[in-house]
Specification:
The complex is a heterodimer of chains A (102) and B (373). Chain A has 102 residues and is of the alpha+beta class. Chain A has helices at residues 2-10, 22-33, 49-58, 78-86, 90-94, and strands at 13-17, 39-42, 67-70, 73-76. In chain B, helix 7 packs across helix 14 (341-366), helix 8 (189-216) runs antiparallel to helix 13 (310-338) and helix 8 (189-216) packs across helix 14. The longest helix of chain B has 48 residues, at 87-134. The chains are: A alpha+beta (102), B mainly alpha (373).
Chain lengths: 102, 373
Amino acid sequence: MDKITRLASEKGVVIFSKSSCCMCYTVNILFQELGVSPVVHEIDQDPEGREMEKALMRLGCNEPVPAVFIAGKLIGSTNEVMSLHLSGNLIPLVRPYQRAVS
Amino acid sequence: MELHPIMSSKGMNSPSAQFVTPSRLGIYEPIHQLGTWGGNIKSNGNPSTSTPMIVEVDTKLDTQSEDTSHGTFPPSNKYEQEASKPVDKIQRRLAQNREAARKSRLRKKAYVQQLESSRLKLVQLEQELERDRQQGLYMGGGVEGSQIGFSGPVNSGIAAFEMEYGHWVEEQNRQICELRSALQAHISDIELHILVEGGMSHYFELFRLKSAAAKDDVFYVMSGMWKTAAERFFFWIGGFRPSELLKVLHPHLDTLTDSQFMDVNNLRQSCQQAEDALSQGMDKLQSTLADTVAAGQLVEGGCIPRIPTAMEKLEALVSFVNQADHLRQETLQQMFRILTTRQAARGLLALGEYFQRLRALSSIWATRPREPA
């Protein structure tokens, strides 16, 4: 879906979420801990939310949210993000987007 | 698992006729080594089961007088060798030896009695557990059980999980023994690798069992009632903390290379970050659930559509339990990817023994002597 692709490429780290989803909140918190401020799109508050949800499912996600994109590329859901982080492969991916240390 | 209401009505003094093999008790293996403490124990002619051996030691200790002692004193021909030395020196040395031997016997007796009574209590507890499991009951136990509402129909999925978990623990104990002997016997790395793989798969099997049980009754899995009391004390979203796992493993990894050390530190940090994120997510879930219950929005069909209901929040709880298990699994996998086979084997043994000790601690606590009210 164009909207998904467009939104996903706008910023470095993008999370598609729902406002009620606590797992999405968890993933956001993890990125915050790594010094990254992801852009969060709450699809349940988007008029095209239904379409976006279907599009995310078509991309291969078991759950539509959370859906994490880094540099426009779909990383996956919570499982994928956690696995990447524990194997030490998440930080290199987000390094360009980490907040500058003051 | 509070079983003391059952225990208090049974006497502790009669040894049970059926002995749990040491491999099931795991940590109680040292009892066999008591046979080497004194010289005369094997001469009693009894069949070689461990409890009669211990009882026999007790009676031997009781009947021996302090002046005539066997087995721990030098034989009489040594006195003749010493005849040329001053007599009072010999006498003093003999007296010191007697005193030391007497104290040693008393210490040994006290230790053995303590060990024996703990072992008997553990045997009785295990028998109770086995009996209850075979009846497929909810393992609420004692006082806490009634508060969790077990008065309803027994959930067969949970009862099945209970039984499967019981088997899982037995297999775990067996694997721990096997691992311990393998490490002591210095088997080859290839054979050790098979044991390590087996141990890891066994943990992954538990996560599969828990996932199915969580779909059935997530509150049950979260309650930890299927685990022992001491394990529950450390509970975090349906199981042990992944960071706790790394803490338990760490002292047992003596020879880490520099790059291993760095990898372990990175793993520790990422594990902690993931754990913290999940904890905060759980807090959020709690507070939003409270909000929806306060707003009366329990199920769909209420007056405000599209606002998540309390029921939907509870579904989210299942995903948190699954995610916590996923974190446990990933932590285990990454840890053992960093380690050599031998280090991994030692780590698995340390981990298994840690949980075994927590389970034993729960039994000992449940059967501790209580002050009369």
